[in-house]
Write a structure and sequence with these properties.
By secondary structure, this protein is an alpha/beta fold. The chain has helices spanning 6-14, 60-74, 96-107, 126-136, 152-157, 164-176, 194-205, 235-246, 276-290, 296-313, and strands spanning 17-23, 80-86, 112-119, 141-148, 180-187, 211-216, 219-220, 254-257, 267-269. Strands 1-2-3-4-5-6-8 form a seven-stranded parallel sheet, with helices on both faces. A two-stranded antiparallel ribbon has the order 7-9. Strand 1 (17-23), helix 2 and strand 2 form a beta-alpha-beta unit. It starts with 5 loop residues before the first helix and ends with a helix. Residues 29, 31-32, 40-41, 44, 49, 89-90, 120, 146 line the site of iron/sulfur cluster (SF4).
Length: 314
């Protein structure tokens, strides 16, 4: 494997196979309820960014139980652990006392090795940061932020409703409290090319982040994006872009995801993305054929800079 893959990293850290279990809170998103925006980001479906998340009307313990059962039914012999991943909408957009109850219920499960919370940079006030820091003394806490792009023009176009400064403030505040930050980037956003994506990635890795999740832009039924003339990436374009981006990720940063699978019932385009296995095989094939390595473009950059004085002298 020529990149720092999440599975390997989790096995190293926790000593066994770790599965992420998607959980839901009853919270919505400030970009949906009118506080920041209405209708949400243009690609976000009304069923939430966590389309696979268990339904929030069940208790966290029940959600965990049924998610674990599904895995254990498939792999009954495996000694494994779990990350409780609060994935739906904005998991820190609700009363802090309720957040505490839900998150504690998850990490009190002895098979849960860590907590992961998906949220927005503008939903991390001091009291939420305090809570997450307290919880991180019990079990590791990952905070996942959907930046998607660092291009402010695109951010407006996709109706993200927060700016890059807000992201910088949030990442620095999380890292200062020892919380691990995972950032989501989307490839194929309207108006963006590969250069824009490299620049977003360079922006992200100039912050103290521990992980990155790459996503393909999906067009889902009922979203604002579905009403536009957006043309999605081809599989070839996506595979080229995502593998090339790995060259710009510092070696210590964990790659949490190289492609996602949108909810098949809601997916309009690109339909090739529904076959996640095929996409992953194409990614693996390109990595093998090119021999490219995570961070290699940064090595080149450093080498060029280090070589500059001698080149000048020569
Ligand atoms: S911030 Fe997340 S949950 Fe909120 S609208 Fe955007 S994608 Fe959806």
């Amino acid at each position: 494997m020529n990149y720092r893959h999440l599975n390997g990293y989790l096995r190293e850290r926790f000593g066994k196979k770790i599965y992420k279990l998607s959980l839901s809170t009853p919270f919505t998103c400030p970009n949906r309820d009118g506080t920041k925006g209405r209708g949400g980001c243009i690609f976000c479906s009304a069923s939430g960014s966590g389309n696979f998340a268990a339904e929030s009307r069940f208790s966290v313990a029940d959600q965990l139980r049924s998610a674990k059962e599904r895995i254990k039914k498939k792999l009954p012999q495996e000694d494994c652990g779990f990350i409780a991943y609060f994935q739906s909408f904005t998991s820190t957009y609700g009363p802090v006392s309720l957040q505490e109850k839900l998150f504690r219920e998850a990490i009190e499960d002895p098979e849960v090795v860590a907590l992961s919370v998906a949220t927005r940079p503008d939903c991390l006030p001091e009291e939420v940061l305090d809570l997450l820091e307290r919880l991180s003394r019990i079990k590791p806490v990952f905070v996942e932020l959907g930046l998607q792009t660092s291009c402010e023009k695109t951010a407006q176009r996709i109706n993200r409703c927060y700016d890059n400064e807000e992201f910088t403030r949030a990442v620095n505040a999380l890292a200062a409290r020892g919380l691990e930050v995972v950032v989501h980037l989307i490839l194929g956003l309207p108006g963006e090319d590969h250069e824009t994506e490299i620049s977003s990635l360079r922006f992200v890795t100039s912050h103290p982040v521990s992980g990155i999740k790459f996503h393909l832009l999906h067009v889902l039924r009922g979203t604002a994006l579905a009403a536009t003339d957006y043309v999605p990436l081809t599989q070839e374009e996506y595979v080229f872009r995502v593998t090339d981006l790995l060259r710009y990720v510092p070696e210590n940063v964990v790659i949490h995801r190289l492609t996602g699978d949108g909810d098949k019932k809601e997916l309009i385009a690109p339909l090739w993305s529904a076959d996640k296995k095929r996409v992953l095989n194409a990614i693996t094939r390109r990595l093998r054929e090119t021999g490219l390595r995570q961070g290699e473009a940064l090595d080149l950059y450093m080498l060029t800079r280090d070589d500059m004085p001698s080149l000048r002298l020569g």
